[in-house]
Design goal:
There is one protein chain. The chain has 350 residues and is mainly α. It has 2 domains: 150 residues; 184 residues, Serine Threonine Protein Phosphatase 5, Tetratricopeptide repeat (Alpha Horseshoe). Helix 1 runs antiparallel to helix 2. The longest helix has 31 residues.
Length: 350
C-alpha cells in the first residue's frame, strides 16, 4: 500500500552496504575511539531507518533499535529522532506497548526539562518541539491500545491483506522508475556546472513523456499520470531556481506548477520558497511577496485551527490524525517569514 523508494533493492542488501562502509571507515580511524564509536552510531541509525522504510519484521526493527541504544546517542535530539522511528515501527506492527515503553520516559524527561527552563525564564522551544513531535505518536499508540487506528496509519496487517490490482502494481513500478530517473537527472545538473537549464528541463520532460506513454490512457491511470506531471513540473521549477534562471523562466515554471496543483502541502511550501528566492536574486521582490504573504496568512490561520482541533481530539481521547502538525505550520511560518522580511527589505532598498 506504500511505494518503495527503490523497488529493486532489499533491506538485506542495504545492510550489507552499510556494514561494508562501516568496516572501511572504522579501519581508517581505528586509533580514535570516538571516531570509531561515531561511525558505528551513524551506521546503526541508517540501519534502523532502512528497517522502517522497508517494513522489516518487527524483531529486526527491535534488534536495530537495541543496537543503537547499546551504542548510545551523540546528542539528545538524535535520541528523540531515532526513538520516533522505532516507535513508528511499533505502530506499524500494532505493538503499542513496545513503542510507549520508549516514548513515555523521553516525554516525561522533556516535560521536566521544560518546567525547569520555564522556572528559569529560559526558552522552551526545543522541548516544545520534541514534546509535540513525540507526543503525537504517543497519542496514536495510546489510541491503538484502545483499539483505535489513527487516520492515515498503515499497518503490516493491512499491507498483508492488501491485494493490488494489475493496474496498481503497474503504477507502483512506474512510479518507482520515475522517481529514480528524476533523482538521477537532478544529480546530473547539480554536479555539472556546465549543464544548462534547457538540458535539465529536457531530461525531465523525456522522463515524463516515457512514463506517461507507458502508463497509457486508461481511466485507472489518469490520477497517476497527473501526479507524474505535477512532480516533474516541480522538479523543473527546482532546476530553474537552482540554476538561477532569469525571472521570466522561473515565473513560467512557477505558473505551470500552480496550474497543475502541488503534489503535497510540503511541496507547496518548498516550491513557494524556491520561487520566492528566485524573485529575490532576480530583483523582483514584489513578485516573491505576492506568493509568500497569502501562504503565510493561510498558515497562521491553519496553525490556530490545528491547535484547537488537536485540543478537542485529546479531550475525546482520539488520535491526532494525519493533518499537518502545529510544528509543521510553525516551522514554515518561521522559514517563509524570514524570506518575506528579506524581500521586504529588498523592496524598500538601502
Amino acid at each position: 500500500m506504500s511505494r518503495s523508494l527503490d523497488l529493486a533493492r532489499t533491506f538485506a542488501e542495504d545492510v550489507v552496504d552499510f556494514r561494508r562502509i562501516e568496516a572501511e571507515f572504522v579501519a581508517r580511524v581505528a586509533e580514535n575511539e570516538f571516531d570509531v564509536l561515531e561511525a558505528r552510531r551513524r551506521i546503526a541509525e541508517h540501519i534502523l531507518s532502512a528497517a522502517q522504510s522497508y517494513h522489516a519484521p518487527f524483531e529486526v526493527c527491535r534488534e536495530a533499535w537495541n543496537d543503537l541504544v547499546r551504542l548510545g546517542f551523540t546528542e539528545k535530539f538524535m535520541e528523540y529522532l531515532e526513538a520516533r522511528i522505532y516507535a513508528d515501527c511499533c505502530a506499524y506492527d500494532e505493538k503499542p506497548e513496545e513503542g510507549l515503553a520508549v516514548l513515555e520516559p523521553l516525554l516525561a524527561e522533556l516535560e521536566r526539562r521544560r518546567e525547569e527552563r520555564m522556572a528559569a525564564q529560559q526558552s522552551t522551544d526545543f522541548q516544545d518541539h520534541y514534546i509535540e513531535y513525540l507526543g503525537d505518536l504517543r497519542d496514536e499508540l495510546l489510541a491503538q491500545q484502545r483499539g483505535q487506528l489513527s487516520p492515515g496509519r498503515i499497518t503490516r496487517r493491512m499491507d498483508e491483506a492488501y491485494q493490488p490490482t494489475p493496474e496498481e502494481e503497474k503504477i507502483d513500478a512506474l512510479y518507482g522508475e520515475c522517481r529514480k530517473a528524476c533523482g538521477a537527472a537532478f544529480k546530473v545538473y547539480a554536479n555539472s556546472p556546465e549543464r544548462s537549464f534547457a538540458e535539465a528541463a529536457a531530461d525531465y520532460e523525456r522522463i515524463e513523456a516515457d512514463i506517461v506513454a507507458r502508463a497509457g490512457e486508461g481511466e485507472a491511470f489518469q490520477a497517476f499520470v497527473h501526479e507524474v506531471k505535477q512532480e516533474v513540473a516541480e522538479d523543473i521549477l527546482r532546476a530553474a531556481c537552482w540554476l538561477k534562471q532569469p525571472f521570466e523562466v522561473c515565473r513560467d515554471r512557477w505558473n505551470e506548477v500552480v496550474r497543475l496543483g502541488f503534489s503535497s502541502i510540503g511541496q507547496r511550501c518548498w516550491m513557494t520558497k524556491f520561487y520566492a528566492e528566485s524573485c529575490g536574486f532576480n530583483q523582483k521582490p514584489e513578485e516573491g511577496l505576492a506568493v509568500l504573504e497569502p501562504l503565510l496568512a493561510e498558515f497562521e490561520r491553519g496553525l490556530e485551527a490545528e491547535i484547537a482541533r488537536r485540543s478537542e481530539a485529546r479531550a475525546k481521547l482520539e488520535p491526532p490524525g494525519d493533518a499537518p502538525s502545529p510544528s509543521f505550520y510553525r516551522d514554515w511560518i518561521n522559514s517563509l517569514g524570514e524570506l518575506r522580511d528579506k524581500l521586504e527589505a529588498q523592496r524598500k532598498g538601502p
